[in-house]
Amino acid sequence: MNHISYYLLFVFSLYFLGFCVARKDDQITSLNKLMESRRSENPPRVQPWTEEDTSDLSPLSIVPQQGSKEEDMIDKLPGQPQVDFDHYSGYVTIDSKVGKALFYYFAESPHNSSTKPLVLWLNGGPGCSSFGYGAMEELGPFRVNSDGKTLYRNDYAWNNVANVLFLESPAGVGFSYSNTSYATGDKQTAKDSYTFLINWLQRFPEYKTRDFYITGESYAGHYVPQLASLILSENKKTNGTVINLRGIAIGNAVIDDNATDEGMYDYYWTHALNSDETNAGINEYCGYGSGNFSATCFHYQSQSGSEYGEIDIYNIYAPFCDGSIQKPATGSVSLSFLSNTGNYNVLLFEDMMC
Ligand SMILES: *[C@@H]1O[C@H](CO)[C@@H](O)[C@H](O)[C@H]1NC(C)=O
Ligand SMILES: *[C@@H]1O[C@H](CO)[C@@H](O)[C@H](O)[C@H]1NC(C)=O
Ligand SMILES: *[C@@H]1O[C@H](CO)[C@@H](O)[C@H](O)[C@H]1NC(C)=O
Ligand SMILES: *[C@@H]1O[C@H](CO)[C@@H](O)[C@H](O)[C@H]1NC(C)=O
Ligand SMILES: *[C@@H]1O[C@H](CO)[C@@H](O)[C@H](O)[C@H]1NC(C)=O
Predict the structure, then answer these.
(1) Antiparallel, parallel or unpaired: β 118-122 and 163-167
(2) Quick one: where's region Disordered (predicted)?
């Protein structure tokens, strides 16, 4: 939750920087100050991760999965074009006592699927759906047409080269749910994802010894290495290879906030979005790693936003808005926590948090 609100503030601030530049500079500065003060007051609570943390995993619930694979096979998604690969979706119960089940969508590769690796994809947040974002907007086999009803093939789908498993994690995200308890935290998430995997492999036994990769983005900067660590420690415990983990990949990783911020401004500068003067000011006055964000730092951060202007910072070379393909949600948000209040139009790009 802390992380989400931190990101919301971050995103809102980007909007202000990007869209309301013409508005009053002091409002931008106020928002920046608020963002920074909230952050230091209430930083995201990331749990420290050590190998010992994985020792209390048992008892793992492995339940027989006979027949479920056939039941999970998808005939056709609504509005879907003909395809030459098999895809599946369904639930895997990971805790029958509390009634917790995780939802997955699995797209096999059209060609030579039996020799291609198995790749797990995790969106971040925390709270972002791997089906809604990862599968339907990013690397899945389909994209949604602007009619909102039909699908088209994504030429750059990862299932061209791998069998891709999209997992909604943790419970409470996307279609994944729990009937009673939503105990959360990085450790619980890793443990639940691990329990999901060993049960899913019972359902799809032909993948049990397949080369396995874990990938993800954003807050998956936590999910990916933590799940990898758990898999390795479980493999060690059983003196065997329960899961044949071969590698991990993370994009836009949330691992360390200081480094992320520093890297972000460095990116603007090295991509000609910020002036030398602004970059020098940020380097001199923001002191990432020192925890010292001065008023001068805020000034340069605001200036950074004014300079890069109305662009999508996640895709700086793309047109900002293409109404014929995607329409960002627009809404009116009252930012009553600012001293100088008012209603602003805010564009919501959930991708920025996911
Ligand atoms: C959750 O509750 C519903 C309604 O009782 C039930 O159908 C479902 O199987 C339960 N889920 C799990 C994972 O136990
Ligand atoms: C499938 O695998 C075979 C044998 O390795 C190879 O000859 C063929 O080119 C592959 N087909 C595709 C489409 O990758
Ligand atoms: C794994 O190997 C160690 C050392 O050879 C042995 O003490 C332990 O019992 C083995 N564990 C299992 C689960 O086989
Ligand atoms: C940033 O670095 C400072 C100084 O090392 C540290 O006190 C602070 O906790 C770091 N912030 C985050 C969010 O990691
Ligand atoms: C924080 O930054 C301000 C402005 O650069 C500076 O005057 C002050 O000494 C710094 N404080 C610490 C503790 O580094």
Answers:
(1) parallel
(2) 35-59
For ligand 2, whether the C-beta of 332 sits within 6 Å is: no
Residue 239 neighbours by CB distance under 10 Å: 6
The mean-pLDDT minimum among 1-5, 96-100, 273-277 falls in 1-5
Burial class of 110 by CB neighbour count within 10 A (0 to 12, 13 to 18, 19+): middle
**Sequence-ordered alpha helix ranges (H) in the chain:** 2-19, 25-41, 68-72, 186-203, 220-237, 257-270, 276-285, 295-308
What stretches of 110-256 show up as alpha helix (H) in DSSP?
Answer: 186-203, 220-237
- Is any ligand 3 atom within 6 A of the Cβ of residue 50? no
Q: Which atom of ligand 3 is nearest to the CA of 238?
A: 13
What pLDDT does residue 12 have? 36
- Pocket residue to mutate for ligand 4, from 6, 37, 257, 297, most atoms within 8 A of Cβ: 257
In ligand 4, the atom with minimum distance to the C-alpha of 39 is: 13
Task: Report the distance separating Cα 53 and Cα 166, nearest Å.
Answer: 25
User: Whole-angstrom Cα distance, residue 215 to residue 276?
Assistant: 35
Ligand 2 atom index nearest CA of 111? 13
Query: Encoding tokens for residue 277?
Result: 């003067």
Q: Is the CB of residue 82 below 6 angstroms from any atom belonging to ligand 3?
A: no
pLDDT at 291: 66
- Listed residue (94, 114, 113) closest to 103, CA to CA: 94
- Percentage of the chain beyond pLDDT 70 is 72
State which of 238, 239, 242 you would mutate to test the pocket of ligand 3, scoring each by most atoms of that ligand within 8 A of its C-beta: 239
Residue 305 to residue 303: CA distance in whole angstroms: 5
Q: Provide CB contacts within 8 A for 92, sequence distance 6+.
A: 65, 101, 102, 104, 196, 199, 200, 203
Q: Average pLDDT for residues 233-237, to the nearest whole number?
A: 91
